[in-house]
Each structure stands twice: as structure tokens, then as C-alpha cells.
Amino acid sequence: MSTFPSHRTRVRRRRRPSHRCFAPLGAVLLLAGCGGAASRDAVIVSDSAGITIVDNDDTQAAWTLDSAWRLAQTPAIQIGNVPLDETQQLYRARHSIRLRNGDIAVANTGIGDVRVYDAQGVHVRTLDMPLSAAGEPLAPVRLHQLPGDSLLVVLLDRSVAVFDVLGPLVRRAGPLTTDEPSDTSPEVAGILRAGTLVRQ
Fold this sequence. Notes:
Blueprint: H1 19-34, E1 43-48, E2 51-56, E3 93-98, E4 104-108, E5 113-117, E6 123-128, E7 140-145, E8 151-155, E9 160-163, E10 169-173, E11 188-191, E12 197-199
Antiparallel strand pairs: 1-2, 3-4, 4-5, 5-6, 7-8, 8-9, 9-10, 11-12
């Protein structure tokens, strides 16, 4: 015959807490994590080898809706997209630079020329690119201004063409190659101040 423990000696079983018990605890921890001061300044300015580094914390922006920068409704300079003006026709423009005299040069890759505009966006001249073996203009993809105001144009076949300040082609070199035929063809990475071409 089996016996059962009496009321006094009955073992109390622990009930597992329901998920509802954890909800208030999670809310308390969340509020505790959100409270208190920010862990860092909104803007930290530091210096590394003479280069100023500005680190902005996007979670506590230093600007307000009133002080944030906004684009103007109308641009100060408009180049391209001017109806009925062929000098303003740009197609797949891939690169542009502001020249030292204030002009703006645009690599008009889709059409195959470089167009130069003054500081107000008025067309100054068009530079015709060298022709490929098939007789088509080689598309310009990158522009660099050399010392003496010459303009170096990197072409789609990785050759380079140099134009003088008034527009005529003065020399052409390339395509750039490497000593090892198996290596990928190098690309122009930039121009040093003395005019030396840097490739990668």
C-alpha cells in the first residue's frame, strides 16, 4: 500500500517563471542602458602626422535640423542637360576636375571627348581624343592637370594623351604595360606635383 506525504511534509515543487516575468526585467535593463551621459564627445578632432582627422558620432550629431547643410534648390553652376545646346551634351561623363584657372574639364566618356567649361559653366573648348585602330575616338576616363597647365587624359585603352592649355594634342604614350606579360595592365593612380605619373 502506497503512502503519500502528509500536508506538512509535502515537497514544494518550484514553478518555472513564465515569459511574462521577464518582460518587465528587460524593460528595466533597456532603460538603464539608454540612460546616463554619452560615452564620448559628438566630434573628436585629432592629428596624425600633420593630417587633421575629424570623427563624428552619428548617434549624437553635433548639428541640428536648422544648422545641417542642405543643397540649394538651384545649382550655382550647371554643366550639361541644357536643351538645344550641343556644347552641353554630356553622355556617361566619368570624371571631372577643376583646373587651376577655375575652368572645369569633363571626361565625356560616352561621346569620346573632353569638354572644358569656364567657372560659370559656359563651354570654352572641346578636346578631340585620338582615334582607335577602328577609327573611333578613344573614350577618356580620367583627367589630371600637369605642371604648366597641360592636361593629361587617361584613355579607355590605358594609354595617355597630353593636351596643351589651348587644346591641341601634344603627345601620346602607352598603353601602359608591365614587365611580366601575365600581370594585369596597370592603371594611372595619380600625378605627383613634379609631373611624375604614378601607376598601380
